[in-house]
Amino acid sequence: MATSAATITPGKMPEVKPVDGFLALALVAVLAVCVRAIWFTPVDAMLGAAQKIFYVHVPTAIMGLYVACGLLAVSSIGYLWIKDERLDRLAEASAEVGLLFMGIVLATGPVWARTSWGTWWVWEARITSTLFLWLLVLGYLVLRGAVESPENRARLSAVMGSLAALLVPFIHLTVKLFRGMHPGPVVLKPEKPSLPPEMLATFLMALAAFALLFFALLRVRFRWATLRDARAALEAA
Amino acid sequence: MSTGLFTPRVAVQDTVAYVAKREGPPATEAYMWAGYVITVGTLLAYLVLMARRIAKSKQG
Amino acid sequence: MSEPVSRAGRTVTAGHRAPAFVADALRIAGKDLRIEFRTRSAFLAATVFAVLAVVIFRFTWDPTAIPAFDLAPGVLWVIFTFSGLLGLNRSFGLELSDRAYDGLLASQVSRESIFVGKVLANLVFVSGVQALTLPAVALFFDLHVGAAWGVLIGIVLCASLGLAAVGTLFAAIASNTRLAELLLPMMTLPFFVPLVIPAAQTSAVILRGQPLEDAMPWFKLLLAFDLVFVTACIVVFPYTIEE
Fold this sequence. Notes:
Chain B is mainly α. Chain B has one helix at 29-59.
C-alpha cells in the first residue's frame, strides 16, 4: 500500500467518478433501448427473435470500428505532430473503449450468424476486417503496457497508431479482394434489410444510445488516465 | 453450412437457421438473450473495472 | 530524397545531401551484414527453422485431399513471416550491447539513413532465407515451376522489402520495451497480412499455371503496400528515437 505523504489538493487532481451524470444518462438510454428492442419491436418473420441482436450489434460496430479507430488514428498522428499529452490519453482511451466495443461485435456476431447463416463463423469481409482491427488495437495496448517511461510510451504508441491508420485501407482491400474470389453465403444480408418503420426507429434509437455510451465511457477512461498520470507525476516528484 | 433457400422442399430443416416454412418465425429467443446478455454483461464488467481503477488511483 | 534532419546542428551542403544519404545507408547495411555473416548464427537458425517447418508441413499433408499447388503457397508464405521475424529480432540487438546505438546516433549519420541501412540489411537477410526456402518447398511438394521462377523471385523481393521496412521499424520500437521478442510478432503480424496474402495468391496463380493477369490485382496491392509503407516507415523512424 503506497503511503504517499502528499495530500490531494483539489486543484491538482482531476475529479473522476466511475459513473458521472453523462454516463448514467447513457446507461439509462442503452437499457431503455434494449427494453424497446426486446419487448416493443416486432419480431422478424424470417429470422425470429435473434434478429434483434442487430440492434446492439450494428451500433457497437459503428462506434467501435469507425469512431474509436478513427479517433485512435487521428490522435496518434496528432500527437506526433504537436506532442500534446492529452492527445496521447485520448488515443489510449479510444483504443481501450474501441477494443471493448469491437469485442462485443465479435462476440454477438457469431450468435447472430448461427441463426441467420447457420454457422458460427464466416470469413466474410466485414467480420474478418473487424477481427484484424481488434487484434491490431490489442497489439497497440500491449505495446503501451510494455514501455516503462511515459514519454517513450506516448511517442512509440503514437508511431504504431499512425502506421495502423495507414494499414486499415490495405486490410480492407486485401479482405475484399480475397472475398471477391469466393462466393459469400447464399442467404439474406442481415445488415441492411429494408426496415419497417418500428424497426428503423428502434435502430436509430439504439445508434444514439450507443453513441452516448461510447463518448461517456471514453470520457471516464480519459479522465482516469489524467488522474493516473497526475498521481504518477506526484509520486515521482 | 449455409442452407440454400432455393430448394425448400429438398433441404433438411436446420434446427436453427431458417428454411422456408409456413408456421411462422423460428424460435430463436435463446440466441437473442445470449446476445443481449453478452453486450450488457461486458459493459457492466468494464464499469466495474473502471471503478476499481479509479478507486486505486485515488487511494494511491 | 528527404533531407537528413540534423539534430547535431550540422549543416549539409546541397551537393553532399543525396550521395551522403545513400553512402551512409549502404555503409550501415554493410556493417550489419558483415557482423551477421561473421557468425552466421541467425541466418542459419532462420534457414534451418524454415526448412524444418517445410518438412513438418509436408508430413502433415494428405496429398489426396489437397493438391500441392493449393497448399504450397500458404506454407511458403507462412514460413516466410516467421523466419523473417527471427531475422528481424536481431536487427537492433546488434548495437544494444555496449550502448553502441547511442554512438551511432551521436555520429553525423542521419536517422533516415540509419533506418534505410538497417532495412537493406534485413532485406538481404530475409530474401536470402526465402531464396533457400523456395527450392525446399518446390522440392518437397514436387512443384513444377518452370519459366515462372523469375516471377516468383520478383514476388519474394517485393514481399521481403515490405517485411523488412515494417519489421525494422517495429524492431526499433520493440527494442525500447521489455519482452521485445514477444512483442515484435504481436505488433507486426497484422502488418504482414497485406504482404503475405497477395504473395500467396500470386504464387498460387503461378503454380496453377493460370495466366499472370489473374494475379495482377494482388501484385498491384503488394507494390502499393511497399510504396506506402517504405515511405511511411522512413518518415516515422526518427520518432522512435529518444531525444
